[in-house]
Predict the 3D structure of the following.
Amino acid sequence: VFLYGKVLEQPLGDIGETVRAKRPPRLPVVLSHDEAVAIIRHLQSPYGLMASLMYGAGLRVVECARLPVTMPSALRRKYPNADKSLQWPWLFFIRR
């Protein structure tokens, strides 16, 4: 029906007693609180922390990955280019 009506711009004509398919309502799959907590408990560091933040604060994956980590001023003076390094933000996630 879409092909003839919108693309070919021609009337479809009589197609008999056919019935258009009805789409079932699409329901999202949502975990219960207990299920989500059980999954988060099985994650190792730093993924457990990230999953807890995403679940508790409603963050998206990219938002969680972009959380800023501030560098202490003494360390900034000692290593002037450390804040541009990709290893610095992950320092606190790796250590326990």
Notes: The first helix runs from residue 2 to 7. The mean pLDDT is 81.
